[in-house]
Amino acid sequence: MYIGKVIGTVVATIKISHLENRKLLLVDQLDLQGQETGYYDIAVDVAQAGPGDTVLVLDEGNGARQVLGLDPGAVRAVIVGVVDEVALAA
To answer: Is the full-model pTM beyond 0.70?
Structure first.
């Protein structure tokens, strides 16, 4: 699981059936200082996130499939929350 920033949307007119009617977002993983790392995922959005949002991404296939209720299914990353704040201990 990681914190990321939504940097774009992905449009696919032809896709596997379990992705039908699901929003796909491009998410850049953030480091501890909140900076984009360049490591990204295309994630299924279940939290109503959008470009510019800081999000919580579950990037483990089995957990992602459980969130979406798929068995089996070809999904690895799911946006499970929109982050309001991150506070690090000093």
So the answer is: yes
